[in-house]
Write a structure and sequence with these properties.
227 residues, alpha+beta, 2 domains, 4-stranded antiparallel sheet, 3 helices, 7 strands
Amino acid sequence: MKKILIAISLVLMFAAASYAQYNIHLKNGSVFRGIHAYHEVDGELRFMYMGGTVGIPVADVARIENTEEGGTAQEPGSSSGTPGILEHRKPVVPPYQQTGPTETVNTAPIKQRLAEINKRLASIDVAVSKYDKLKEEYDKVRLRIEVLFQKGIAAAKNVDGDPAKWYQYLPPQEREWAQLNTFKKTKLKKELDDLETRMAPVLSEQKQLLAEKKDLERQLREAENPY
């Protein structure tokens, strides 16, 4: 008798589930309508839809509407099909992620934003390249002066001269090079310092844009390949 009662209970439970109707609202505005049953497995909300099984991260679900109970808003529950109540809240979504209450994601805004990001990143790359070339030129000039400095120091020591006046112990041509490169080094250092100051916020923007681009590319892949 006990086994019979359990069997009857299971039949009634599955029968009730087959008639239940749920609308699953995602945080991006999409809605899956007419879902008969859903289950939570490993952090995903799983259900049958259009002849296939759909798995959506629970964190992406805004609310679950039970149409059999007059449109009650519910949160993702357990596999038993008894979700709890969730208050109505409109999620804050960036403009390029807003798709409206449709069953498919509008990828056009995402692609547009990606194009804007790629254009800005390209201009940042030009600025970074300019900085790298200036830094490379500065390092070459600094190395030339260092070589002449070491040569002048050695020449001064050979004649017991003053190392502080190392440039005076260089041959005339190299002495002229030392003076010209010292002047050039001072000029390049000032340009480099000014450019580094301007580049700091640009590099910070570049980092943020790369992170946003990665997230948008993920959203685009998921939208174009939902199953």
